[in-house]
Structures are given as C-alpha cells and as structure tokens.
Write a structure and sequence with these properties.
Elements: E1 2-5, E2 8-14, E3 31-36, E4 39-43, H1 53-56, E5 60-62, H2 68-71, E6 82-84, H3 86-91, E7 100-102, E8 109-111, E9 114-121, E10 129-136, E11 139-144, H4 153-157, E12 162-165
Parallel strand pairs: 4-5, 5-6, 6-7, 11-12
Antiparallel strand pairs: 1-2, 2-3, 3-4, 8-9, 9-10, 10-11
Length: 182
C-alpha cells in the first residue's frame, strides 16, 4: 500500500508484528519505505526481511527498537547505514552492521533531504522504542508501529500532516505484566 505526503512516497512493506500470518496483506513484519528523490529510507527491518535488501534497495535503515520483528532482518548485516538510538544499537551489538549511526532523542538528523527526529514511546522495558517525526520541507508525518503510550503528544504530533501508528490497542490493553509484578 502506498501513500503520499507532499513529494514523499510512503510504501507499507509490512504491517505484521510477532504474530502468525493471517492474510496476504498482513504477511511481513512492520516496515515502511520512505522514498524521496534518490533517498530510500527503510524504517524497521524484521526477521522476514533477511536476504530481501536487493528488492528494497534502501539507502538507509532506521530502527524504532530492537525487537526481532523490527530489527532481526539485520542479523547478517546491512548494505547501507543503520540509524537507531544508542539503546537499540547497544542491543544489536552482535549484528555485523558496519555503518552504525546514532540517532539522538529529540534532535533531527537529515538523511538525503529527509529529516528524522526520534521521540521516545512506551512499548517495552527490554527494548526501548521510539517513534519518528519525518519531514521534508514543510510536510511531515509521525510513524510509530509499536506503542503503548506516546508521552509528550503535543511535541511529537504538533503540526504533523499524518499520524501512522499501531492499532493493536484498539480492542485490548497493550500493558503486559507478570502476575507477581507490582
């Protein structure tokens, strides 16, 4: 599925989390391709993306967090720079990624004319996650494929043209606790 935000083309490469394949349209792990001019940014690269880089031809990969359904497609390395927060890069230290680039929180980084700014979201204690405000010129969208809560909503979403987020919280709580945890 494709969408346009100004001169930016968005292609939803996958929308599935770490669950069974339920339909043809919901078969690959969550991933978004941001295409602007010659720049092709792949946001997230889960396990089922192993060996599929040639077809996508990303100029950069940006990760929201280190869970397998968002990052394990990089277990054999990447043909391009990989951007992520320090916490995510640390969790993926065993992956043979040659070009690791740290994305600081709340400071935009420009990749081929596309501005990317990481905002912390609540998703997992073991794999801290972020959502991204992605901007080209005066157009922007916010992408957060796994989120239980978005702290500081006004800063993250203020002025964006489109929000793309996880719908898994529509029918049941995303908060999971062990029975003995307080």
């Amino acid at each position: 599925m494709k969408a346009n935000v100004g001169a930016v083309e968005l292609t939803f490469l996958g929308t599935r989390g770490e669950i069974k394949i339920r339909s043809r349209r919901h078969r690959r792990h969550s991933s978004l391709l941001v295409h602007y001019g010659e720049t092709r940014i792949m946001i997230d690269c889960g396990t089922d993306w192993l060996g599929r880089f040639r077809a996508i031809a990303p100029t950069a990969v940006v990760l929201t967090h280190a869970h397998a359904d968002h990052a394990s497609g990089l277990a054999e390395g990447a043909p391009c720079p990989v951007y992520a927060t320090k916490e995510t890069l640390d969790l993926l230290h065993r992956y043979p990624i040659r070009d690791r680039r740290r994305l600081p929180l709340r400071k935009s980084v420009t990749i081929g004319g596309v501005k990317v700014e990481a905002f912390p979201v609540r998703h997992s204690i073991r794999a801290p996650a972020v959502g991204y405000r992605v901007s080209v010129g005066n157009r922007s969208f916010f992408y957060s494929p796994d989120v239980a809560e978005l702290p500081n909503v006004s800063a993250a979403l203020g002025g964006v043209d489109m929000y793309i987020g996880d719908g898994a919280t529509m029918k049941r709580s995303m908060v999971r606790k062990k029975k003995m945890e307080p």
